[in-house]
Design a protein that fits this description.
There is one protein chain. By secondary structure, this protein is mainly α. It has a single domain, classed as 434 Repressor (Amino-terminal Domain). About 70% of the residues lie in helices and about 0% in strands. It is built from five helices and no strands.
Length: about 90
Amino acid sequence: MSSDNFSMKLERAFVELVAARAERRGFRKGAFAQQLWPEVSLKAAASRWTAMRGTAAHTGKPQGVSISDAQRMAEVLGEDLSYLLAVAKENARK
């Protein structure tokens, strides 16, 4: 598998992991998004989170996840980013 393909698999595995953990903690999608990006409107935050989990309207592909966004996700979940990435990496290898 090329490193480019694995990078995308890792990113998708990370988003899936975060989404599953947020759901298990009882976060609704909009509420989780609002905690990630409190500086923007609820609608904008929810759209951003939806684009990361599915497909962005303008590209038809999932929106990428920046390191800063990944760190915010870990903080909201109360988890360590490196741990989440390690779990996502193992999931991506499956």
